[in-house]
Design goal:
By secondary structure, the chain is of the alpha+beta class. It has seven helices and 17 strands.
């Protein structure tokens, strides 16, 4: 499997967060309509997916003009991320308040993540500043008002019950990075780029038909994720929501993320559009393998998710994640 770094530029707000499992689902729909995106039939690729994933996508992360990437700070205790040695109680309390706001860490050079206590952390304002944006923040969440419409009458009916939905709005000029690992026996680089370009044109996620989720692909380069991390790792840093394998890890640090899945495209308007919910570990998780050497033999961790749909037995979801091998000193 080869891993690529894809740069995209948002052209509109996003109604759905750019998370790896959702990107995978939309890529599969593109392949369903354009079989030439894959080197093998989609049905065959899906059949092999639980043992040999043909594509694994990361979530989206801010990209900076100097080539660096802002990754999510690991979901670990602050004491493991920052050095409080020799500081007074007042300094520690004040430091914690400041460090909690530093939710991003910079990555882009070899061994940038070799030592978390030496990483460059920054908050949303600092990120926007490094990105050279006029906005105070790289992105913001805005609410939009909606109201249910009776499609037969074209009106709101007897009642008026407006509701709000949250959209992510990226500052003008901002760019994002997606990492994608592909099995070149099943997916070509051209197929990967074409699939993502078509997603960007049609729109990603919720309310794409109203103009949300538009983006353009600006570049694509091969990347070695292992070069960012430690040469003596004891943990794996995940780049997408994942469901870890059983009996492989001695410990894990993560924030739970519940995916209330829903079918896309034409199945979204079927009689049973919802999938079974899945609890995942959000991106930024740290997994501690019992056998690191064995874990490093493949560029992804996690499992495939099956048995999710009551109307499509072959439906799968990405419980896999690309990772960066890191070292975290745990007392």
């Amino acid at each position: 499997m080869k891993t690529y770094c894809i740069i995209i530029e948002p052209l509109s707000p996003f109604g759905t967060p750019l998370k790896g499992d959702t990107i995978f689902g939309q890529f599969c729909w593109q392949a369903a309509y354009e079989p030439d995106l894959l080197k093998v039939p989609l049905a065959e690729a899906i059949r092999m997916y639980p043992e040999n994933p043909f594509a694994v996508f990361s979530s989206g992360f801010p990209s900076l003009p100097d080539g660096r990437i802002a990754l999510k700070r690991p979901d670990a205790p602050l004491d493991l991320m920052f050095d409080f040695t020799g500081k007074s109680r007042e300094e520690i309390i004040g430091g914690r308040k400041m460090y909690k706001k530093m939710t991003w860490m910079l990555c882009g050079k070899p061994a940038d993540l070799a030592n978390f206590r030496r990483c460059h952390y920054l908050d949303s304002k600092g990120l926007a500043l490094l990105a050279g944006l006029e906005s105070e923040t790289f992105s913001s969440v805005e609410e939009s008002s909606h109201n249910s419409i009776n499609r037969l009458t074209g009106t709101t009916g007897d009642g008026f019950a407006p509701f709000t939905q949250e959209n992510t709005v990226y500052a003008a000029g901002s760019r994002l990075v997606l990492f994608a690992g592909i099995d070149e026996d099943m997916v070509s680089l051209d197929g990967l780029k074409t699939g993502l370009e078509r997603i960007g044109t049609s729109g990603f996620g919720r309310d794409a038909s109203t103009g949300l989720g538009k983006f353009t692909v600006k570049g694509c380069d091969e990347v070695d994720l292992a070069s960012y991390g430690s040469v003596q790792p004891n943990a794996l840093y995940s780049l997408a929501p994942s469901v870890p394998e059983k009996s492989v890890y001695t410990d894990a640090l993560f924030t739970p993320f519940t995916r209330f899945g829903r079918h896309g495209d034409r199945l979204a308007i079927s009689g049973r559009p919802f999938k079974n919910p899945v609890i995942m570990a959000d991106e930024g998780a740290l997994y501690f393998p019992s056998d690191m050497e064995k874990s490093l033999q493949r560029p992804w961790l996690g499992t495939a998710l099956t048995g999710l749909s009551k109307i499509q037995e072959t439906a799968v979801a990405q419980g896999y994640s690309l990772y960066i091998p890191v070292r975290l000193e745990v007392a």
